[in-house]
Write a structure and sequence with these properties.
Metallo-beta-lactamase, Chain A, 478 residues, alpha/beta, Serine Threonine Protein Phosphatase 5, Tetratricopeptide repeat
Length: 478
Amino acid sequence: MRTKTLLSVAILLVCGSPAVGAEEIAGLPLHTEELGPGAIRVWLGDYVSTTNVVAFATEEGIVVVDTFGVPDVDAKLRTVIARELGRSDFRYLINTHEHGDHTGGNAAYDDCTIVGHELVAEGMANTARGRDRTLDWYRGRLPEMEEELQSLEPGSSEAAALGEELIYQRLVFDKIAAGVEPVPPTLAFRDRLALDLGDTTFELAYSGGMHTRSDITVFVPEHGLLLTGDLMADVWLTDSPGCLANFAIRDGIPHDFPRFLTNWDVLLAERESIELLLPGHWNGELSMDGAEARVEYVRTLWDGIREAVETGKEVTDVQAEYRLDTRFPELVGSPGFSPQINHASITELWRDVTNQSSAARTLFMLLIEGADDAAIRQVVEAHESESSEYSFSETELNAYGYAFVQRGDFDNAVRLFEINVELFPESWNVYDSLGEALAARGDADRAMASYLRSLELNPESETGRAYVQSSTASETQG
């Protein structure tokens, strides 16, 4: 069933119209806000979730945190910052993490010292290697957005929201298509770094392993301001949270949770000095209580899973014990949390503690690469080994199966769902998902058999009943 997938879909917001005559850059409304004496943030758009670009005037020059992500646009934003602060002596640019919407405009500050975690450069290089694939995605998606925009009522909030998103995505596409070379940090650090700019101090600390491996926080004590990048938000000002969409321990991202927790303990000890927490995108807000609850969530899972491994428990035991609704009821409904995200976080943390690899991700990559059946079976049969190098998750296998469905690759979707049925034969949902993929491939008889088995295991399955009733009605009419 599709609702079990871990993949999320953003929903565009309907909100108020921008003021007539407002200043624009690249077709997007410009916003500036004073955060305190000598501290501002600027951003573009009334709807689209763009980056907070934050700037500080210090005794030794201007310090900027993050970029919009497009050099030409960031050059214009740099001019705005200089105008608002009444000076142009730019000294440092700080990247809160590697993603292009925070680092893609680094070229506009190539005369400054660019600061970031030591893993930012590698992350930027990895993204650049996927340039052709990214361009192919944009070439398919942009026309779809243009067609959708034409179907909306001109002047409506829906049209305004999609129009801004389309402008933003075109800017990013044009940058990538132009072959703009990434400009990585020139000053990198691993754990903590303090920048003393005379009257202002910037305390940078590793916080990776959640959004990206290179996440950092930036604490500016003189302003009582904590910049948290894209790590978390407990309020979404729009229905399209963008990079702030979830708070998850992500598959494939290197973790160091002892350092993560230690550095956050240092920040939480300063809570009386922190007046404002500022996420990396304008449409997110974060309270100190919200940040602390999220840190404690990670700590609870980290400690609990290590204890579970030491006492010989299985990952399924932990997933049952640390359900969101029973173990973290205060986080139910909180932005960035869902049972699926919680399940995925537990699975990934389990791998981190046990040094196991994701069987689902491994199988997904093998299928993409066209591996032979022997390589596939080697992974599948490791499920029976007591010392398997892989961890197996029904939910994760399901999610990767739907990734194939979304690609239109129904053969590989069917194969991965079949593996899920083999591994978890008592789960109604694996048969339901297999039935959907078989039906999409045009294999009606096998789809019916799979849906019937799902109904045997779960007679309340709405998708199973709907398929069987629809197929029966079609046969009767025929």
